Structure formats: C-alpha cells, structure tokens
C-alpha cells in the first residue's frame, strides 16, 4: 500500500543509494556496447564551491539530457569533476591559516603551503559533489576528475610545451588586471565593475617651445587618477579638434616631474568629453597602452606590486625627468594617499583648475574586494589569433552550433577581436609553469626538470643551475583541455576514442568567452576536432523581482534550503519550466511550492488508482483497448511523449516541461481520472470495461513515470518501484526505456472526449466570467446540433450535468433570448442566464474593468516609450513593467471576451 503522502526527505537518499548500488549512471555498460554514445562534460565547479542556484539550473538541464538519452538507449557518459580554482582555493587556505593563528604561506614556504592546500582538499574540498548528488545529478561518479589530477596535469604540461615549441606561447611585458592584495594577475571574469562616486580633477600642463621654455600656453587635462600622472608620456587630442590642431607635435612640461611629453593626434580622444585633451599613461591604463603603442610613447610604471608609488631608484621614471624633491618624497605612499598628495602639490603650484564630482565604474577584484590596477608586468601569453580562426571556421561550417543561435554573433565578435591570452598567475596553488631559467637568462621549456636540465646541458655545454618559474597557469588553461583531458588524453584511451568529441555542452552565457571559446580553440588545435557539436547557453537565475542575486542585497536563494523544504524534484521542475531560451529566470518560491503540489497531485492520483484496483499487468496491450475514454487517454499520452521529445531535441526545456505538466495535471489527473470514476466506482459496469480501465490507468501511470523521470527523478523512481504482478525484477526506472506510444493516436476518440472536455471547460469559463454563483445550476441548450453532437451529449449526459453544474441539457433550432453563446468545436451551445445574472449590471461592471485595464496599459506604454527611462532604469524594473503590461493585456482580452458574450446575450 502506498504511503498517504510523498515525503521527499524520506525517499531521496534511499533512491540515490539504489542508483549507486545499481551502477545506474556508469558509462560503458556491457548491454550498451553497441549503442550510440552520448557525452556531456560537466562545467567543473570550483573545489571550494557550494551549490548555488546557477549550479542547480545548469546541472538540472544537463541531467535532463543525460537521463533522456539514457532512457532512449544510448551509452551515456556524463563526465564529472571539479576545478582547482587557483586564487579561490589559495585564499580559502590562507584565511584558515590566519584564523587558526598559524604561520602564513610566505613564512612556511611554497612546498609546505601547497601540501597544506592538498590536505584541505582531501578534508573539505569537493563538498559540492555531494550537493550535486542531492540534486539528482546522474553523472558517472566513478570517473570523477580534478584539474590537478596526475593525468590532467600531464595534459597541461604537454600542451604548454607543444604550444611554446610552435611559437604560440611566449613571454611579454604587457598590461594585466593586477590585484594588489593578492599580488597576481587575474582574468577579466574575476573583475567586477563597481559604481563609485569620485572626482574628475582638471590639471593645467604648460606648453613649452623647442628649447623647453614655457610659452605661457596651457593644455588642461582631466583625470580620475591623479597619482598616475607621474607616469604620463603624452597628451592626446583628436586629429579633427580645431582647438588643438596648432599644438599637435609640440611638447608639454609634465608638472611635478618636469618630463617633456608630446601632444599627439589620436582618435581615442573624444572632443565632446571633458576638455578634449587626454593624458596618456601607457603603463596604467589599457586604452592608453594601445594609444602609446600607436604613437610610440614608452610606458613608465610608477607603482609597485602593492600599488604604492615607485619613484626613488626607478630608472624608467627618472629617465628624461627632473622630479621635484616634494615629488620624490611621495615614494612608497599607497596609491590613494598618493592621489591626495599629488592633488595638493598641483593645487599649491596653481595648476589645479577644477574639481568636479564624477560617478564612474571602477574595477574591483571579485574576491579581494580591492581596486584592480592595470599593471605592466612580464607574463606568459598565448597567441590565440590562429587558434581563434579555426574555432570561428568550425562554427561557420556547422561543426558546432549555438543554442540560442544569437550567441553565435557574440562568439564571432569576441574571437574576431581577440587579444593575446595572459596565462600566468603569481600564485602557488595551481599548475606551475614548466619553464626553467639559468643564471645567464637562458629559458628552457620542458615537461620535467630532467628534460629542462638536458636542454640546458646541451645549450651550455655542461650542467648548470636552473631555477623554475614560480608562477602558475591561469585556471582557465587547464579547464580549456577539459573535454579531452578528462577522457585520458594524451593517452589513446578507449574512452577518448568512444566519447570524444562530446555532444552537448550546457553552460552559462557568462563564460562563453572564458571557457567555451577556449575549449573550442584548444580542442581543435590539439585534437583536430571540435570538442562538442552543440553549445546550449542558459541565462541567470534572478530573484522573483528580477534582481540579480547577491549576498550584499540579501536576496540569495539557497537551493539546498529549497530541496530541504520542497524536495529536489520541485526545484528541478521549477527551473526547467522557467528555462526559456535566452531569458533570465525569475525564481519565485510560489512556483517551487506549486510544483511541489504537482508532485503531490501525481502521488495522490497514483494512490487513488491503487485504491481502485488499478494494478500493472504485463499482459496489458494499449493498442487493443476498446473504450473510447481509454483510447483518448492513450492517444493524449502519445501526443505528450512526442511533444516532450521534440522540445528536448530542440533544447526548449520549458516547452518540454509544459507538455509533460499539461498531460499529467490537466489531461490525466483532472479529466481522465474524473471521467473514469463512474467506470471504476459505479454499479452495473461491465467487468471487462472496468478491468480495461484499471489496466489503462496503471499503464499510463507507468508511462508518466517514464515521461517525467528526466525532470523529477526521485518521485518517478519511487512510483516505478510500486510494481505489479510479474514485474518484480524490472530494475531501475533510470535504466528503463523511454515510452514507446507511437500509433496510439485516435482521432475518433479525441473528437468525442475532446468535445466533452471543451464543452465543460467553456461552460465553466462562461460561468466564471459572467459571475454565475458557484452553487447555481444553469440549463444548457445545444443549438442546431447534428447527429454526432447529439450522440456525444447523450452518451455523456450524466457526466456533463455533474461536471458543468447544469440543471438540464436540451436541443433547439435557435438560441433562447438572454443567453450566453459558446462555440465548441464548431457547435453552438447557449446558457440562458435570465433570472440568474443581472446582464445589464454585469455588462456595466465589465466595461468599467475594461476601462481600468486600458488606462493601466496606457500608463505602462508611456513608460516603455520613454527612451530616457529605458536607458536609466535597472533592467529588472523594465522587465517588471513589461510583465505587468503583458498581464494587463491578457486580462483585457478576457474582459472583452466576456463582454462579447454578454452583449450577444443582451441582444
């Protein structure tokens, strides 16, 4: 006997254990040796991570695809693993050392610190794996990998050495995003732009003649970063700016430093912005770096790695300059203290013309929280331009497609304008760069120290001392190899031969460039094949008001908390039902609760079936049923299966969920079981009809379990376990075949039962729209009904009277006066409402409601038509207004429909 209620907390762990015991998710099962392979590689979460809502969405969608393809008979490998997450993991361990009052990493040294990180990983790392299992992720956990596994490390070393040998990896001095707190370069993804209320300082730079004497002319520049002016090497003006045309080619004296710098013409300067003259500091601004390269201005770095002024002893700074003593006294000042000091010095010299308030975006480290510096350092780079060309061609040729397709354009834009990739990081945790140096500046790149020593001995004619490069590789470097390194490359493994290239990559749109593009480039370059055939990019999960979730806002929703409260199935179905292509998800707890109720409704339906003698019978043949009601239900099930299949094949996850929901809740629970009650519970029913109906209901519950399994695996596996006679050994639902219901569509049955369903639905809608009291029974008149309609009405008269709350059903040649007319599948039905509803009063009420709706739509249209409002308002506010307009438009349409009915009745 089934439990009275479905309790997710009581069954999820048990079902997960059954999957694990049955090796349900293992790739390469013997019985599937001849099956078509299907592979997804998980976007490896950080080993430091915990499950957030983005993970929940991403892994739910992957799991749906994997369970769906597994049920369709394919040999599925969902490859799991975690990322070593260089800076994030190092930060976690350093914080722990500080909290436990142990020596910091520099005190203990590199080797001891790295050992401590490995110990932390063994003890606490990878908690997210267990959290993914709670979500129901059907990965092949026996194949879990880590980006610093021995095998993956070998792949990293080989790719680095090969790319260097091919001239694609090189060392260069360029600007990077520099985190002064962690003292390392970081990727663009680790930089957050923060709106800051600051100032714009206007400084006067004196013009000099050929001898260096001041002419009395000045050029005023505006800057948000006065401290960097000490590194200025030019001032740029627009070539077409008449104000400065005569000054182009002349020189300025840089205040405080007394360096003579040129005035250059460059289109980067915007004549409409500020004074139209822009200070160029190539070592401290990405745009200025490019201007400096175009104009031949050398970069001068005036900050040290901790973002303090670096002046005294700085040969680059002192060259061609005669800094004042007060300027040199700023050496060692923190950048923000130096900013105030420079402004004070400029003001004292009468060169501060103006200070104006200025709100602007300032880059911050997403983990350190400090302001990021564009910083000039020696780093290792990959020349990705030729790699990008191959990735672009693979997409153009259709080897890899993007879903939604519009992301293809973004992919092209990024890769067509790609810059060299900085791959070195000044950290200790990660893949240490396989480069060794000798004391004469020789560089040796090799997969091992022994190989490097052999190179050095050959080059130098004997043994020499070598020092390894202390930097580690950007985490994205090893992640870029993930699709093939996890399958055993560079070894020729059976898994690599069978599952590479992989099939679908499911990931967030925010890492299209950082991860997807780099996997494409590396996969094509290293293996000569695109790493996946389809990239499905999902959007963000926001809060129910459309705001981005953040700890600072306090609106973060914990998926584990929702699983505890509502069950994993409810959370999964919510995310799937809302995952429309290209649209952010506004997560409403009400929706999660609603889909928990959906699970409850299905459970109650199965329990109702059990209590009414519906038992699974292996001899049941759906194609042999005789009852029109059962034929209709089986045909609707076949349609639902086809709709779900089509939607999943097109990655329309929300449409797949909607099709499954519609069949289970509306068709099966609300209509089929309701229409079947007289057969199951009535007196005088033929035994054969009752038995067939019981068999059909049990069969359909089994098909529903299959249909819903990719979306709601725990509930459906539990329903599947409720076996019938002769089915005790049928195994796990996770390995069961997908429903095969082709050929069960029955147009005749659909015409009959569909008419009954539509007629009841239309009567109910009309009653609601016209304010007929809930308890009132009203007559129904079929107008000019043909023989087929009369037969259907007579066959289902009792059901129609009961479900539509009708007092009687009659037939007539014309509709009676004061009747609401309904069109049902080409037939006219009328509800005489005289004496039941005050038609005139109801028309007046509805017209008033229509006026309110039209007024509200007008107000919302005014806002949406205001370009200034659209530019200034937060995205979530604009989205909310659009949703309100859609809701009001839908409400107005229903009001007008009701008015049309009542107006007909009045006439």
Name some characteristics of this structure.
single chain, 907 residues, alpha/beta, Isoleucyl-tRNA Synthetase, domain 2, hypothetical protein PF0899 fold, 31 helices, globular
Fold and architecture overview:
With 907 residues, this protein is of the alpha/beta class. Among the domains are: 179 residues, Valyl/Leucyl/Isoleucyl-tRNA synthetase, editing domain (Isoleucyl-tRNA Synthetase, domain 2, Alpha-Beta Complex); 34 residues, no CATH class; 92 residues, hypothetical protein PF0899 fold, CATH 3.30.2320; 69 residues, Helix Hairpins (Orthogonal Bundle), CATH 1.10.287. The chain has 31 helices and 29 strands. The strands form 9 sheets. Strands 7, 8, 9, 10, 11, 12 and 13 form a 7-stranded mixed β-sheet that branches. The two termini are 58 Å apart. The model has no long low-confidence stretch (mean pLDDT 92).
